[in-house]
Predict the structure of Outer membrane transport energization protein ExbD.
Amino acid sequence: MNLAQGTKRRAMQDRAIVPMINVVFLLLVFFLMTASLTPPAPFEIDPVEAEGVLTDPPPDTLHIAADGRLAYETARGDAVFGALANRDADRPLPIRADSGLPASELAALLPRLAEIGIADIRLVTVQP
């Protein structure tokens, strides 16, 4: 009985799997680096259409529904203003408003945002 030959075959099998593990790990890293991880919108919004560059809204976007509901990260309703007060006021605030929202309601929201220090906003749109 030759036990050395069996252990040699086992060692060859173990070494053959290492390149496959390396390839799987590299594929995993590749897909993680190229994936777009954006949180889902808090409610369904039909965004405003405009010509321009199409981009995804950043995660710190203020969402406004057609009926005036507000959402920012995990805050909903009037709690949004408290959450926005903790935000860095130097960066522009992206706003994703529904196309059915009257412009007067959006305009009425701007003084409340200015009270908490947000003066620069960006309206997120989609291409027609």
